[in-house]
From TrEMBL:
Protein name: asparaginase
A Pfam match: Asparaginase
Domain of life: Bacteria
Organism in which the protein naturally occurs: Streptomyces eurocidicus (Streptoverticillium eurocidicus)
PANTHER family in UniProt: 60 KDA LYSOPHOSPHOLIPASE, L-ASPARAGINASE
Keyword Repeat included in the entry's annotation: no
Length: 333
């Protein structure tokens, strides 16, 4: 019989009515009690925290990362399920994927409807996640997200619907597997860079600040420069189109990079890669100024890539090299 450990962190799947709205307050055992456990799987629960995921901090996410690694030191564990709020699930899952150096699956799941909803989606999602975490067919697939009958790779998968049950997808890719009739139907294995080591323990003052700034019509460098002045070690520029902004923002990016700030370039468009096509403030100029193009990673996951590069390497050149490797950008001469 396989053993799967459920790490409970809160979210809608653990939420109850608080008088004016829903908030996470249920323990992992209460969440597990709502779901059918697949045959042949025994479950152990770790209650790590119970919060709405919009409130998560880097410290919380690092605690989750280290807890998962500690759980996997037990050779009797076949996989891990993380129950998590959907708001920032894509960020936590990608963080763990970047540092996951073990063939056993870690599967994130959650819900769009609260714990006690009569027609809630949490029980099915949790059942499917347990099935995926205990599946030998999903070994060496990294960190996964099980939601609404599909299993997605952490990389590139984002929340695409605010309320509907089919909340997660990779807009530039396709699911790794489907769950049908109690079986995992695997379609392929995601490509992943070599995993990073665990970040060294640090107090709050040592955690790097990484900000996100969006470009739009009439945008100037004010907010970008404010992030630099606030001490950001990294900034994600969410550009338009295939990764375009203005000459003024290019100048600001160049100045930030010269000060050792990691700048990652993504787009506000839902799918497709950023690409060096346009000049006059476009991705051609932004890349020349030192911004690292993030492929199909969108803002939240691009920020996690910058954060992990900053947490695990020292020095501007090493951090830039690490970021390029994490996002799949070509190395520079």
């Amino acid at each position: 019989m396989g053993q799967v450990v459920v790490i409970s962190t809160g979210g809608t799947i653990a939420s109850r009515w608080q008088g004016s709205g829903f908030a996470a307050d249920a323990r992992g055992g209460d969440v597990l009690a709502t779901a059918a456990v697949p045959e042949g799987i025994r479950v152990r629960v770790v209650d790590l925290m119970s919060v709405n995921s919009a409130r998560l901090t880097t410290r919380d996410q690092l605690a989750l990362l280290r807890t998962a690694h500690e759980v996997l030191t037990d050779p009797d564990v076949d996989g891990i399920v993380v129950t998590h709020g959907t708001d920032t699930l894509e960020e936590s899952a990608f963080l763990l994927d970047l540092h996951h150096d073990d063939p056993r699956p870690i599967v994130f799941t959650g819900a769009q409807l609260p714990l006690e909803a009569a027609d809630g989606d949490g029980p099915r999602n949790l059942h499917d996640a347990l099935l995926a975490a205990g599946s030998a067919a999903l070994r060496d697939h990294g960190v996964l997200i099980a939601f609404d009958g599909q299993v997605h790779a952490a990389r590139g998968t984002v929340k695409v619907r605010t309320l509907a049950a089919d909340a997660f997808a990779d807009p530039s890719g396709s699911p790794v597997a489907d769950v049908k009739d109690g079986r995992i139907l695997v379609h392929g294995r995601p490509e992943r860079p070599a995993p990073l080591p665990l970040p060294a323990p640090a107090d709050d003052t040592a955690l790097p600040r990484v900000d996100i700034v969006m470009h739009h019509c009439d945008a100037d460098p004010l907010l970008f420069d404010a992030a630099v002045r606030a001490g950001a070690q990294g900034i994600v520029l969410v550009a338009t189109g295939a990764g375009n902004a203005t000459p003024e923002i290019v100048t600001a990016v160049g100045a930030a990079v010269s000060r050792g700030v990691l700048v990652a370039l993504t787009t506000r468009v839902p799918s497709g890669p950023v690409a060096e096509i346009y000049t006059h403030g476009g991705a051609v100029d932004l890349a020349a100024a030192g911004a690292v193009l993030t492929g199909t990673l969108r803002a939240g996951q691009a920020r996690i890539a910058v954060l992990s590069a900053a947490l695990t390497t020292a020095g501007t050149e090493a951090r830039t090299h690490a970021l390029r490797r994490l996002v799949g950008a070509p190395a520079t001469a």
